[in-house]
Every structure is written in structure tokens, then in C-alpha cells.
Amino acid sequence: METRVVKAYGDEEKDRELMLEAGRIIREGGLVAMPTETVYGLAGDALNKESSKKIYAAKGRPSDNPLIVHIADMEALSKIVSEIPEKARALAEKYWPGPLTMVLKKSDIVPYETTGGLETVAVRMPLNEIAREFIRASGGYIAAPSANKSGRPSCTTAEHVLKDLNGEIELIIDGGAVGIGLESTIVDMTGEIPCLLRPGYINPKMLEEVLGRIEIDPSIGGVMDAKAHPKAPGMKYKHYAPKGELYIVEGSSENVIRKINMLVREHEEKNEKVAVIASDETKDLYKCGIIKDVGSRMDEETIAHNLFAVLREMDELEVSTIYTEAFDTPRMGMAIMNRLIRAAGHKIVKCE
Ligand code: TXA
Ligand code: MG
Is 310 in the pocket of ligand 1 (CB under 6 A)? Predict the structure, then answer.
């Protein structure tokens, strides 16, 4: 199968045509990659079990790892869930459309192939206009995991998608680089107290403003416990890992820089290619290795936005080892560190 990449921004009429075509592919059971404000998604018809099976096959994803159903309006929600708790309604009111996914009890029309056999369904209404147009053109219910091959960093550009899925899907809608760059926040709304399953741009404080007290799945908390059993099935899999060995180096800025310089020198003495993931503030203080700057610590949204692209670049550079600073920033630190810790397979060097 040939994968076409078509730009979807600019010309209104052409975009409309493109959405109709993309919608037709979905209605006929095919797959399309779509831009969203978080990361690119690999879209199929959420209500067609054959489409969901195709998604798992294209991604190389285990079929017990459920898909998120993307909708374009609130009417669609009531068709795919069996109840909408008051708190879920309040959260939707505040953060939809946007980078928030809610886990709710599913209705009968959602096939188990989409929910990985669960009685619940994860639902999100993306903010990205192209995504919502495309969802409408497709019949209203799009199952879309992140459009990367299973285990790889999520895709933040159409080029990343092409690299992972060339020949596996019919069409990639190129909406340019995404805005946020990390996947949506996931909250389980089926229990008495809402539970955060995956941190994202919508952080615990923003959730608490609407929900009051929330629980945080122990597998993603501030200090992530490698042994905790995550409630979102996908969070248990190895993820985001670059081919080189990634280590997070934690401690005071001064100690981290000294430690990384020392470690990199040791590798270079053995003729090994090493990279460092640094920030604007620290990049000039590293003396050896390939230095990749993810942005300023004063601008954590930029760090989040660049993270996956930098992890992907590591594979192109063919480095054998990567050291990264930790980014425990105030708003998105939990989300950034959750991805980094999993990419590093929990390898953390403490230097205090
Ligand atoms: O930002 C996003 O959410 C992106 C874009 C494309 O919308 N999508 C995304 O999907 O990140 P994916 O499949 O890569 O991650 C979905 C996560 C997985 O960890 C999965 O286990 C969890 O959501 N999940 C899905 N349905 C669930 C359910 N019913 N209960 C608990 N976790 C669920
Ligand atoms: Mg994913």
C-alpha cells in the first residue's frame, strides 16, 4: 500500500475535499493518520471492530491495550457511554475540546476490540480543528492511538508518522507540527473519586479546580514506582525508548553538569558516541558529547513540545548512550518526567 501525505492547512476548499476523502477511507474500514493538538493519531472507525484490529496490526500493539475514542461534539458522547457522571460533565465543560481523555462506562455499540476487552471506554474531544472536521466526515467516532510504532516515541510531525507507518496506512493528513507534544491527560471517571491515569498538559491542579480531590495512580506519581501496576493498560508497556541506553541524571544543576561531563568523557575515551539532553540554561556547560537542547527551563511548554522529536533524533544520531537532565518543572513536570522515566526504563543516576 502506498501512503500519501497531504497537507491540510491553508486552502479551505481543498481541505474540505481532503476531509471528505479521509472520511471515506475511514467509513470503508481503512486507516488515516490525523494531527491533534497533543500528538498525531492513527485513526480508524471506533465502532468497526475490523478497523480496530487493523490499528493494532499497523502499530504492532498488543490487543489488550485499549484505544481512545475521539469525538467532535457532546451528542456523540452520550451514544458511546452508558452514563455520564456529573463530575465528567463538569470536566468536559471546562476542558473539552482539549487535551483531556476521560475513562467512562462504555455502551453496547463500542466493540471490545476497541476497548481492549474492557467494559470502559476512553473518550477525548480534540481541540485541533482539522481533527474535529475529520472526525465528523468519518461518521463521528474515531479510535486513535498515537501514530507511532508500538514502543517508539509518539509522533509530533507528519514526517515522524511517515517514518513509522509508511506502507501501512492509506493517508497521512499533515497538519504541521503539533502544539503540545505530549499525549492527553487521562482521568478515570468510573470510580467514586476520579483517578489520574496518565499525566499531560491538564495537570492535577487544573483537574482539582473542577473535581476537588483526585487520586493519582501510583505508577505515575511524582516518584514513579517501577513495581506499581498501572490502571491504564498501555502504561505498563515499555515505551518511548530510543535505541541507545538512556539515563536520567538527577541532583542540583551543578552536580548534574559535573556528573554528566565525567560520564560522557569516560564513554568517549572508549570511542563510544554519546549524547546529552540539556536545556538553554545548561547547554554551554557540557564539554563533550553531542548536546541537544530541548528548550529553556523558563518555558516548560517548549520542553514538552520538543521532547519526543529529540528522543527520535537520538536514533538518527546512532548514539549508544544518552544522558538527560531531569525536568521537574512546575506545570508539566509530572507529564514530562513520566515520559522520560519510561523512555529510560527507570534508569536514574542520582548525584546528591
Ligand atoms: O493525546 C492522546 O491521547 C493521543 C492522541 C492521538 O489523541 N492518543 C493516545 O493514544 O495517546 P494511545 O493509544 O497512545 O494511549 C492511550 C492510553 C493507553 O495507555 C491505554 O492503555 C489507555 O490510554 N486507555 C485507553 N482506554 C482505556 C480504558 N478504558 N481504561 C484505562 N486506560 C485506557
Ligand atoms: Mg501511545
Answer: no
